[in-house]
């Protein structure tokens, strides 16, 4: 297991965290290359990308947004961690790393995983370690040059770094952030596919768990900001054509199903599934899916639901099996376990 080195903190808390990480060996394992054949997206950065304080970080909320809206995305990277609700755990979030350290390795990662889209949030450790702050924009520029030279057709989203609670560090963060738009624009003017994301404006210090890393609310705000930016750039995450959430165009004589999380609470959740007939009528339908996190269905309505291990099968009931061309019906259920997972659905007519 890799040794985990966290973002550098100041004072006694920093020392305790760093020592604990060294002694315990807490870490993120090598990526096991989960892939659904979707658009390859590389989350790239430090422990904020990794998800320190909240496992999975922004990646969980971003993945769920992809799945709910039918985008098929494949997170890529040499590291892997996060909860079951995160459908793809791969990333390049290296705890404690500065811009120069990411730059020293990025070409290898890009050649290995060939991402179509890169999500870059980096520079926080340069500020926390007070590492040649005047040169940080130039280091970022060099990193971006290496990214665009290695994957010249990739869409690269460059974030300003999120706020810091310490006033002195926050002042330095703002100075660094003020230089980022100019760095990005210079690359855009040269024809590169770069896009600025003002992540600093998306969060406040109230969204931080420890003065540096986001809490759950802060990470979800990051996910929302990334998602909004990605949707504004055509092709950066493909088309909403039935990724893990379902919702693809139904084939003639067939059906499609879309899964939606309606609500969550501690130890449970409620979800619904919409079944839609294709261009011709169907006499009945069956929807199947698998839960990766051990969830189970406890009660269902408008469908007969059966479980076999991690496989869930839902059949129409008497009054909602026959659907005209293009018509839809819904069924719902409550379940135990994490409600964040949005599984892939298979719909069979007949």
TrEMBL record:
Q: Where is the CBM2 domain?
A: 248-350
Q: Which Pfam families match?
A: CBM_2 (PF00553), Lipase_GDSL_2 (PF13472)
Q: Which organism is it from?
A: Actinoallomurus liliacearum
User: What is the protein name stated in its UniProt record?
Assistant: CBM2 domain-containing protein
Q: Quote the InterPro entries the UniProt record gives.
A: CBD2, CBM2/CBM3_carb-bd_dom_sf, CBM2_carb-bd_dom_sf, Ester_Hydrolysis_Enzymes, SGNH_hydro, SGNH_hydro_sf
SUPFAM superfamilies with a match to the protein in the record: Carbohydrate-binding domain, SGNH hydrolase
